[in-house]
Amino acid sequence: MSYKSIDTLQKALSEKVFSNTKDSKKAAGRALGTLIEIITYYLLKEWKMVDYISIERKLAEYGNPSITHNVEFTLYPLLQKKTHTVPVKQSLSSKAIAKSIGLSNDFVIKSNVLLDKDMTMKNSCIIAENDSIIVIANIEAIKGNQATFNSCWQIANPYSMVECKRVGVEEGNKKGPQTIEKAKQGAYVAQSTSSLQKIRNDKGEKFGITYKNGLPIIKPYAELIDEIISSNDKSLLENFTLSIGVVSNHGNWFTSEDQNKELKVLAQSYDWLLFLTDEGLAQFITDLLLEPSAEFEPIQAAFMSSYKEGKKANTFTKTKINYAAHQALCDYFSKNISEIEHWFNIISPESKSLQTLKETLSNLANKQWEDLL
């Protein structure tokens, strides 16, 4: 079955999944926001970025670290990665993992669970951290009563961040009433958390300003950001954070003739702004949640159980997800990655491709950060 718009799809979800809730359409809208985050995470995972990701971390403002902002995904330099195999018992806690991998006493151990007794896993599970290092773990595989996971030691100085923005459209409205507020919030965070700052001259041309050894450098923005990304200069890279925004739901951001003001606000603020098309989101929901083939039924099952009446826990989010659903999602993205990448339109920078963004993230990830910081 095809759906003409996200609004039509949202109504279908509200009838098939959320009919027991007080406001079924609003509940379906919140679920759509979760799906956009999941799509973004598994896209990054397919791009081999999973070892660098932390989820819902506080990101400090540049030059003003007393103010921080939670963002969906933050990418950190990878100091080291190790693979471990442990027996699966009742659950696999961060405390147990810290003991098994021999973390020293200068780390603060977190109260997280990488894998619980119901086979719900935690993506980018933070095991421990100190002032300079974050240790996360990701499940690699589970076979019988053995779990294989990767421990990733991240340098606590992010090089990129990703935020997802979606606002539902209520009945009788052309776009969500909170769209402009969401846009302003995203724009503020994007512009305040990197050493590369945006300024305009009297002709409206966008320039960038950053500092090298305490001295300002001002150049056309596109030129300066390329210079920083290709650089191995500690002074330029130390507090640079590439900002990426992902938005969805066509009616909030476009008219038939032009971009809405809200999208323009985001496009001039993020270094990269991606639009997840209505068609792409509809295909994801149709293929995996409403009409899945047998191999992807674990995804549908995790989604349905997360929203059924009397549910115990949500097992279908970017952070916590049923292991079988996680494996099925990995298979889906691996098999369909070329098509999935076409779900996204690049709003800014103009004339750049998703392949360029992928290469940029890989370039930043592969720098010798331990020598630079």
Q: What is the helical fraction, as a range of percent?
A: 25-40%
DSSP summary, beta strand count: 18
The count of helical stretches stands at 13
- What's the Cα radius of gyration? 21 Å
Shape: globular
Structure description:
- This protein has 373 residues and is of the alpha+beta class.
- The protein is 37% helix and 29% strand.
- It has 13 helices and 18 strands.
- A six-stranded mixed beta sheet has the order 1-2-11-15-16-18, sandwiched between helices. A five-stranded antiparallel beta sheet has the order 3-10-9-8-5, with helices on one face.
- Strand 12 and strand 13 form a beta hairpin.
- Helix 1 packs across helix 2 and helix 2 packs across helix 11.
- The longest helix has 23 residues.
Summarize the structure.
This protein is of the alpha+beta class. It has 13 helices and 18 strands.
Tags for this entry?
18 strands, alpha+beta, 13 helices
Write the layout of secondary structure elements.
Blueprint: H1 6-16, H2 24-46, E1 53-61, E2 64-75, E3 78-87, E4 92-93, H3 94-100, E5 108-109, E6 113-115, E7 120-122, E8 125-129, E9 133-143, E10 146-155, E11 160-165, H4 179-192, E12 197-200, E13 206-212, E14 215-220, H5 221-230, H6 234-237, E15 242-248, H7 250-253, H8 261-267, E16 272-276, H9 278-290, H10 297-307, E17 320-322, H11 323-341, E18 344-348, H12 354-365, H13 369-372
Parallel strand pairs: 11-15, 15-16
Antiparallel strand pairs: 1-2, 2-11, 3-10, 4-6, 5-8, 7-17, 8-9, 9-10, 12-13, 13-14, 16-18
Helix pairs in contact: 1-2, 2-11, 4-8, 10-11
